[in-house]
Amino acid sequence: MSTNQSVGPSSGDELGWTLDRHILERQRRTPGASGDFTGLFQAIALAGRVIASKVAKAGLADVLGATGAVNVQGETVQKLDELANKILVRCVEAGGHVCVMASEEDETTIPVPPQYPQGKYVLMFDPLDGSSNIDVNVSIGTIFSIHRRVTASGPGTAQDCLQAGHKQVAAGYIIYGSSTMLVYTTGDGVHGFTLDPLVGEFFLSHENLRMPTRGNTYSINEGNRSKWTPGVTEWIDTLKSDKAPGGKPYGMRYVGSLVADFHRTLLRGGVFAYPGDRKAPEGKLRLLYECSPMAFIAEAAGGAASTGTQRVLDVEPTALHQRVPLFIGSKEDVADAERFVAKDAR
């Protein structure tokens, strides 16, 4: 579902454009649109509002801390992780818009219950990115990715989920911070909506976001330095020196929550990296739930996303929880990273 026409509030519009109106206007401009995408997006936005409410009062309700379980990634499951996962599934499953879902928290695909109709879309998501930061009140978020199904009919399968990122219909994230924002793209522009908690609606606040072609900050976990490859080490050392682009060292900004680090990079420019290293050559971040949707957003905003050797959106997934290295942000900064990483292959 794409359009080259700009959609936004008219001059002097005091009410502002809601997310619902924004999506509906795009639907009207898309020949043959059935409304299924609109319905799915409304369900995702509802889930975001519910999760935002839970996050806002996490310290007052019994949703902080770990459940005692370990997910498929080998990570300790936080109570709010589990709750966010259930909220997303419950908000989406009955609408008839999807045929299957997949979550970073679940080992296998999430089927649509047989009592509900099967839809034409596939939804994949990380219900609560950065959950290790929940207990310390740092910004966290929800990441989502939408594809069209590839199987003909009936219940969806893993085949529907294992699609390259460039085939995404839409991708986005919801960041729960000082305010709650939903940022999304259908591939032809990136738009941000801020939740008004009193009204209970997302209003257009950032239209046609564009990422600067080069920034002056980098985001990386310096604690992994001893495991980095020589190319990555040289790249970071260059950014921290007077040899950095522009002749001035880059500043370091690292939250440890992909949504928070990417959101800042989208607005300000620069580069976020979670490279492969000697211990984990495949990196840490999941292709389907984190890297592909963020790459789709980055490219739609004029940025870039790479594994260091390949465009992220061209990676053909082979497993639901496949991991890949990630370099994402301003186009020129990502290109610099690729040049240094290429030295490791020589």
UniProtKB/TrEMBL annotation:
<dbReference type="InterPro" id="IPR000146">
    <property type="entry name" value="FBPase_class-1"/>
</dbReference>
<feature type="binding site">
    <location>
        <position position="129"/>
    </location>
    <ligand>
        <name>Mg(2+) 2</name>
    </ligand>
</feature>
<comment type="similarity">
    <text>Belongs to the FBPase class 1 family.</text>
</comment>
<dbReference type="GO" id="GO:0005829">
    <property type="term" value="C:cytosol"/>
</dbReference>
<comment type="pathway">
    <text>Carbohydrate biosynthesis; Calvin cycle.</text>
</comment>
<comment type="subunit">
    <text>Homotetramer.</text>
</comment>
<dbReference type="GO" id="GO:0030388">
    <property type="term" value="P:fructose 1,6-bisphosphate metabolic process"/>
</dbReference>
<dbReference type="InterPro" id="IPR028343">
    <property type="entry name" value="FBPtase"/>
</dbReference>
<keyword id="KW-0479">Metal-binding</keyword>
<dbReference type="GO" id="GO:0042132">
    <property type="term" value="F:fructose 1,6-bisphosphate 1-phosphatase activity"/>
</dbReference>
<feature type="binding site">
    <location>
        <begin position="129"/>
        <end position="132"/>
    </location>
    <ligand>
        <name>substrate</name>
    </ligand>
</feature>
<dbReference type="Pfam" id="PF00316">
    <property type="entry name" value="FBPase"/>
</dbReference>
<dbReference type="InterPro" id="IPR020548">
    <property type="entry name" value="Fructose_bisphosphatase_AS"/>
</dbReference>
<dbReference type="InterPro" id="IPR033391">
    <property type="entry name" value="FBPase_N"/>
</dbReference>
<keyword id="KW-0378">Hydrolase</keyword>
<dbReference type="GO" id="GO:0006094">
    <property type="term" value="P:gluconeogenesis"/>
</dbReference>
<dbReference type="GO" id="GO:0006000">
    <property type="term" value="P:fructose metabolic process"/>
</dbReference>
<feature type="binding site">
    <location>
        <position position="290"/>
    </location>
    <ligand>
        <name>Mg(2+) 2</name>
    </ligand>
</feature>
<feature type="binding site">
    <location>
        <position position="284"/>
    </location>
    <ligand>
        <name>substrate</name>
    </ligand>
</feature>
<dbReference type="InterPro" id="IPR044015">
    <property type="entry name" value="FBPase_C_dom"/>
</dbReference>
<feature type="binding site">
    <location>
        <position position="104"/>
    </location>
    <ligand>
        <name>Mg(2+) 1</name>
    </ligand>
</feature>
<dbReference type="GO" id="GO:0000287">
    <property type="term" value="F:magnesium ion binding"/>
</dbReference>
<feature type="binding site">
    <location>
        <position position="221"/>
    </location>
    <ligand>
        <name>substrate</name>
    </ligand>
</feature>
<feature type="binding site">
    <location>
        <position position="128"/>
    </location>
    <ligand>
        <name>Mg(2+) 1</name>
    </ligand>
</feature>
<feature type="domain" description="Fructose-1-6-bisphosphatase class I N-terminal">
    <location>
        <begin position="18"/>
        <end position="207"/>
    </location>
</feature>
<feature type="binding site">
    <location>
        <position position="254"/>
    </location>
    <ligand>
        <name>substrate</name>
    </ligand>
</feature>
<feature type="domain" description="Fructose-1-6-bisphosphatase class 1 C-terminal">
    <location>
        <begin position="211"/>
        <end position="340"/>
    </location>
</feature>
<dbReference type="GO" id="GO:0006002">
    <property type="term" value="P:fructose 6-phosphate metabolic process"/>
</dbReference>
<keyword id="KW-0460">Magnesium</keyword>
<dbReference type="GO" id="GO:0005986">
    <property type="term" value="P:sucrose biosynthetic process"/>
</dbReference>
<keyword id="KW-0963">Cytoplasm</keyword>
<protein>
    <recommendedName>
        <fullName>Fructose-1,6-bisphosphatase class 1</fullName>
        <ecNumber>3.1.3.11</ecNumber>
    </recommendedName>
</protein>
<feature type="binding site">
    <location>
        <position position="126"/>
    </location>
    <ligand>
        <name>Mg(2+) 2</name>
    </ligand>
</feature>
<keyword id="KW-0119">Carbohydrate metabolism</keyword>
<dbReference type="Pfam" id="PF18913">
    <property type="entry name" value="FBPase_C"/>
</dbReference>
<feature type="binding site">
    <location>
        <position position="126"/>
    </location>
    <ligand>
        <name>Mg(2+) 1</name>
    </ligand>
</feature>
